[in-house]
């Protein structure tokens, strides 16, 4: 498989199905693990990093049963390819911008990614569309068991799985759910939700994790605590909270419709109009407008565009995806012009062709 | 958003967005005291008094280095990353308040690997030998490097045997 083959597809995290898919975009669980007989990555020289890579590569090569994993030597990929993998949520920004030997193994369906030599020797990630955080945990737990049959991980009875950063020690687990919360953002209720989440030790981050902005009204909710709680308790904590937030968002949408339908409809339609007509447009503006349109489609305020097309556009208008789809490097203003032209093309197609039948609908 | 100081785990009051070389931004969070330390250090990286002032209270602990990976607690406070699994033992006294702050707990209750490290001493010995080989190669002492490589190989073989 070549990275260019992935570009036209929309990846697992924006596939747009699963339960509550209008609000819950995707679920993810990752585990941090380290080999017991090597120093952590920051203290390992290049020769050791290569040893770690070889050792893990042979151990994870065949753990994924039905579909074989594809390896990418991240250090050898060019900037565009690295950025592309970040946009698809297959590698972290840290792995993309890191130094020295590092790699990622990806399942063809893009629901599994195993990062080697990131902050820890091994980061196992399972990502599913929609709300399925427990299922993600079950899958990643099995993968972890299989790798564990082949290597010995650093573990102490007292502190659990030992990680390079003490914020991950214990279970080494970060479980997260990505939510699309345009109505809560619009009505400024979002800060109150966040304050409530912090009280129960959950963190809120933007689209691309730590330190990123909440672009497109996408928010990631994840556990802060990894030590002194079982994996099951961490998942349960998230499972208690997500339906509540989903309900808040639905309530906010309903009251917007009830009290301000004209204003809301106007906002959504203008966003749709700009996306269909703009001649140059930034990534940020695109995300904001697509967010409005996505909500509009979910509320039946726009009826001629399908939700999976909007999901597609979220990812295809990101800088690296756009350049791959256009097949040429694009900088600054050229990129904004290409983005606008890509949006016009995709959004005009819906009036000319019938939507493909049906497997991807709903 | 309530963040914790990345050095001591106290509530962070100063948040710094640092622009790296390739234009990527990283977020740093500090309590008042460690923010001052950080800013002093990044202003004049060559002067040592700045880092000295932050360690006045913890002199004995911070000077200890991990015999396996060479990490010191001062270095950990600077980078926020530990050097090897053995650091959790060596810096246990210093780490405990920090872990308590981050997690509110000090004891793991989650998953236990089916295969526990059989002999932690052997694992740390391996890390140590690997660090030594790194140094030997750096000073081009290839004879010593070869000797160390043999030791590593035989320890690795022992490592595999009991699990099969």
Can you put this structure into words, describing what you see?
The complex is a heterodimer of chains A (362) and B (164). Chain A has a domain at 256-352: Four Helix Bundle (Hemerythrin (Met), subunit A). Helix content of chain A is 46%, strand content 15%. Chain A has helices at residues 3-6, 46-60, 79-87, 93-97, 133-148, 182-186, 190-199, 231-277, 283-298, 307-316, 319-326, 332-352, and strands at 24-33, 70-73, 103-106, 112-116, 122-129, 155-156, 160-161, 173-180, 202-205, 218-223. In chain A, helix 3 crosses helix 11, helix 8 (231-277) crosses helix 9 and helix 9 (283-298) packs antiparallel against helix 10. The longest helix of chain A has 47 residues, at 231-277. The two termini of chain A are 28 Å apart. In chain B, a hairpin with a 5-residue loop joins strand 1 and strand 2. Chain B is globular, with a radius of gyration of 20 Å. Chain B has helices at 32-43, 49-54, 59-62, 73-79, 87-90, 92-103, 120-138, 142-160; strands spanning 14-19, 25-30.
Write the layout of secondary structure elements.
The complex is a heterodimer of chains A (362) and B (164).
Chain A: H1 3-6, E1 24-33, H2 46-60, E2 70-73, H3 79-87, H4 93-97, E3 103-106, E4 112-116, E5 122-129, H5 133-148, E6 155-156, E7 160-161, E8 173-180, H6 182-186, H7 190-199, E9 202-205, E10 218-223, H8 231-277, H9 283-298, H10 307-316, H11 319-326, H12 332-352
Antiparallel strand pairs in A: 1-5, 1-8, 2-3, 3-4, 4-5, 6-7, 8-10, 9-10
Helix pairs in contact in A: 3-11, 8-9, 9-10, 11-12
Chain B: E1 14-19, E2 25-30, H1 32-43, H2 49-54, H3 59-62, H4 73-79, H5 87-90, H6 92-103, H7 120-138, H8 142-160
Antiparallel strand pairs in B: 1-2
């Amino acid at each position: 498989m070549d990275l260019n083959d992935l570009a036209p597809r929309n990846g697992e995290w924006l596939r747009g199905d699963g339960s509550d898919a209008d609000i819950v975009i995707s679920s993810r669980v990752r585990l941090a693990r380290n080999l017991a007989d090597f120093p952590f990555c920051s203290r390992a020289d290049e020769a050791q990093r290569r040893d770690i890579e070889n050792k893990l590569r042979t151990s994870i090569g065949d753990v994924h049963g039905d579909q074989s994993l594809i390896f990418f030597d991240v250090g050898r990929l060019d900037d565009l390819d690295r950025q592309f993998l970040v946009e698809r949520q297959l590698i972290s920004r840290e792995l993309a911008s890191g130094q020295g030997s590092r790699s990622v193994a990806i399942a063809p369906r893009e629901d599994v990614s195993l990062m080697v030599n990131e902050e820890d020797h091994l980061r196992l990630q399972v990502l599913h569309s929609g709300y399925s955080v427990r299922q993600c945990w079950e899958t990643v737990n099995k993968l972890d068991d299989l790798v564990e049959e082949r290597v010995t991980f650093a573990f102490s009875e007292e502190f659990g799985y030992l990680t390079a950063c003490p914020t991950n020690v214990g279970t080494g687990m970060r479980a997260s759910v990505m939510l699309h919360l345009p109505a809560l953002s619009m009505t400024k209720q979002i800060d109150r939700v966040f304050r409530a989440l912090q009280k129960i030790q959950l963190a809120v981050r933007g689209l691309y994790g730590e330190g990123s902005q909440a672009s497109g009204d996408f928010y990631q909710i994840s556990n802060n605590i990894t030590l002194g709680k079982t994996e099951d308790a961490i998942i349960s904590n998230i499972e208690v909270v997500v339906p509540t937030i989903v309900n808040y968002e639905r309530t906010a949408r309903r009251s917007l419709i009830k009290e301000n339908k004209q204003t809301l409809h106007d906002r959504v339609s203008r966003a749709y109009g700009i996306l269909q007509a703009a001649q140059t447009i930034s990534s940020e503006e695109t995300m904001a407008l697509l967010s409005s349109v996505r909500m509009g489609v979910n509320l039946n305020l726009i009826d001629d565009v399908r939700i999976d097309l909007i999901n597609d556009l979220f990812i295809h208008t990101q800088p690296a995806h756009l350049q791959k789809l256009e097949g040429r490097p694009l900088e600054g203003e050229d990129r904004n012009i290409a983005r606008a032209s890509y949006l016009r093309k995709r959004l005009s197609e819906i009036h000319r062709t019938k939507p493909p039948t049906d497997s991807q609908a709903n | 958003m309530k963040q914790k100081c990345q050095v001591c785990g106290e509530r962070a009051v100063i948040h710094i967005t640092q622009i790296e070389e390739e234009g990527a931004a990283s977020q740093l969070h500090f309590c008042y005291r460690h923010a001052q330390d950080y800013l002093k250090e990044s202003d004049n990286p060559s002067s040592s008094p700045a880092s000295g002032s932050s360690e006045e209270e913890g002199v004995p602990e911070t000077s200890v280095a991990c015999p396996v990976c060479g990490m010191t607690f001062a270095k950990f406070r600077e980078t926020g990353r530990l050097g090897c699994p053995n650091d959790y033992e060596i810096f246990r006294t210093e780490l405990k308040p920090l872990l308590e702050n981050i997690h509110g707990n000090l004891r793991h209750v989650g998953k236990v690997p089916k295969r526990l490290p059989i002999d932690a001493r052997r694992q740390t010995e391996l890390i140590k030998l690997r660090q030594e080989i790194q140094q030997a190669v750096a000073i081009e002492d290839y004879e010593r490097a070869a000797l160390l490589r043999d030791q590593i190989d035989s320890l690795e073989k022992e490592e595999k045997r009991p699990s099969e």
